[in-house]
Write a structure and sequence with these properties.
Length: 286
């Protein structure tokens, strides 16, 4: 009889804290898609999604902390254990950070499949995505999120409808911590008056060079304007004005085109408010 092999991961030191799939998980070994370094001391294991089965669904990931430069040793050990004839029960502990047993609080030693693994950085399960049949929209769109929290980080594969007229700042997640092809869509459903809205990268030094902000011209009263990002431009600012920028219909589309540092490209089309007669001044990359 075929033995189905499963890979076990636990990301908490206290066994009593293992209360969700972001803390510990056991994944079929045949769901493993890839093993790759995402830093010189970090290896990411990508798996077929356990809650999505439609084409283009996101992957589940387990990120392991490792000795610097030992991505090969870690990948080699995991593959060897998967392909080995043992264990006979099919249960393979890849990385278990638990050091406090529950109940009793007895001390345990963490368990790793190879000494180059030093811990579990994170366990991430892809959000549910919807097919065209599910929601009557284009494939794989998340449900809209109305106005993200101020100073919050926007989530990939999400549509944001912004109706917040206060001054706000939002962050774009690390390009290297997300995947090539990941995207974020933003649509303004209200005028922002004279307030400043900023979209800023978290760890990347800049948006992908060549990203564009476009302000459409309006008749003879509003001159069209474009700003193209260069290196060190990690902020996209929209400065609202009662007769200028920041109007309903302003839209931004972020796409991670490399999956590596500085990989977020953005195209922004900034609509006007009121008479839209005020020239663009502070809507730009910086």
């Amino acid at each position: 009889m075929k033995v189905n092999k499963w890979l076990y991961f636990a990301a908490q030191a206290d066994e009593a804290a293992l209360d969700g799939s972001d803390d510990n998980i056991c994944i079929p070994a045949d769901s493993l898609i890839s093993i790759n370094p995402t830093a010189n001391n970090r290896v990411t294991l990508s798996f077929k999604s356990m809650i999505n089965n439609n084409a283009g669904a996101g992957v589940d990931t387990v990120v392991l902390e490792t000795v610097v430069g030992d991505a090969f040793e870690v990948a080699n050990a995991i593959v060897r254990h998967i392909n080995a004839s043992v264990p006979h029960d099919g249960f393979i502990v890849v990385a278990n950070d638990v050091t406090i047993q529950d109940p009793g609080d007895a001390s345990l030693l963490p368990t790793y499949i190879h000494p180059s693994i030093t811990g579990v950085n994170s366990i991430s399960i892809a959000n549910w995505t919807h097919t065209q049949q599910d929601v009557g929209m284009s494939q794989n769109l998340s449900l809209p999120t109305v106005t993200p929290a101020d100073n919050g980080t926007l989530a990939v594969s999400s549509i944001y409808h912004i109706s917040d007229v206060a001054a706000r700042k939002w962050y774009i997640p690390s390009a290297a911590a997300t995947r090539a092809g990941d995207w974020i869509s933003v649509l303004y459903t209200a005028n922002i008056a004279a307030n400043l809205h900023r979209f800023e990268t978290t760890t990347d030094a800049n948006f992908y060079p060549g990203s564009v902000i476009r302000v459409p011209g309006v008749g003879g009263s509003r001159v069209g304007f474009t700003d193209v990002s260069t290196t060190n431009d990690n902020i996209l600012a929209i400065q609202g004005h009662a007769t200028g920028d920041g109007g309903i219909g302003t839209r931004l589309f972020f796409r991670n085109i490399t999956g590596t540092t500085n990989g977020w490209a953005v195209e922004a089309i900034v609509e006007g408010q009121g008479a839209a007669s005020q020239a663009t001044a502070d809507t730009l990359f910086s």
